[in-house]
């Protein structure tokens, strides 16, 4: 017969430390259990008062849970690759303002529900910068959703056909930061326009979007296609939006030439 580890009595034959470890693990206090095990093989506990030792155990549990939560956020974001703000290369001539990026790394624009546009030709590092900001957001406890724009709109078209569109919208809406990578790589079709408008309408003034695009912002109106929808979309995302315009040659090609 199956037993529930939460209700099985503590084994009285175990010594006190073993019983304590058993209870910590049953209560999923894994950070605390690891710290306690560490203390049994060192003089850590002997050098502390009981109050300090308890505080140390609790701090280790907190750190363990914080690290686990960050890893869950990173997995849930579905990034294509790892990228971090400290890896952004400012020596490449592409019009990237380090002061601006560092201000964005404060993440205040996300907390204020503002948007960020990163534009530039292929290979200039748009996706890397967006992903680095996304990783930084996750590391600061902000739920993030990364998506290739074309694939996401394709997914939503299928969901609408299946009647699961609302479920997909709720998944996106959970994240204070949404990264739409390579938007307007091809013009929107008649089914994609209202889907993009719905996403933007749901987030307007409350939650942030980072959009990367090869098209300059001035060309987005034509890429949307329908004037009425274009007005509605741009009116909602352009207000108080931050903008990074990358110039120059492909970073990938430059780095490949140096190898």
Structure description:
By secondary structure, the protein is α/β, with parallel strands linked by helices. Helix content is 52%, strand content 9%. Helix 9 links the parallel strand 3 (177-181) and strand 4. Helix 3 packs antiparallel against helix 6 and helix 9 packs parallel to helix 11 (227-237). The longest helix has 28 residues, at 50-77. The chain is elongated. It starts with 15 loop residues before the first helix and ends with a helix. The mean pLDDT is 90.
Structural class: alpha/beta
- Give the total of beta strands: 5
- On the 0-100 scale, what is the average pLDDT? 90
Low-confidence stretches: none
Radius of gyration: 24 Å
Termini Cα gap:
63 Å
Binned strand content: 5-15%
Main sheet record? 5 strands, parallel
Percent of residues in helices: 40-55%
Order of helices and strands: HHHHHEHEHHEHEHHEH
Shape: elongated
Describe the structure in brief.
The chain is an alpha/beta fold and 259 residues long. The chain contains twelve helices and five strands. The radius of gyration is 24 Å and the shape is elongated.
Reconstruct the topology from this structure.
Layout: H1 16-26, H2 30-40, H3 50-77, H4 98-104, H5 108-111, E1 116-119, H6 126-139, E2 144-148, H7 149-162, H8 165-173, E3 177-181, H9 192-203, E4 208-213, H10 220-224, H11 227-237, E5 242-245, H12 251-258
Parallel strand pairs: 1-4, 1-5, 2-3, 3-4
Helix pairs in contact: 1-2, 2-3, 3-6, 7-8, 9-11
List keywords for this structure.
single chain, alpha/beta, five-stranded parallel β-sheet, 52% helix
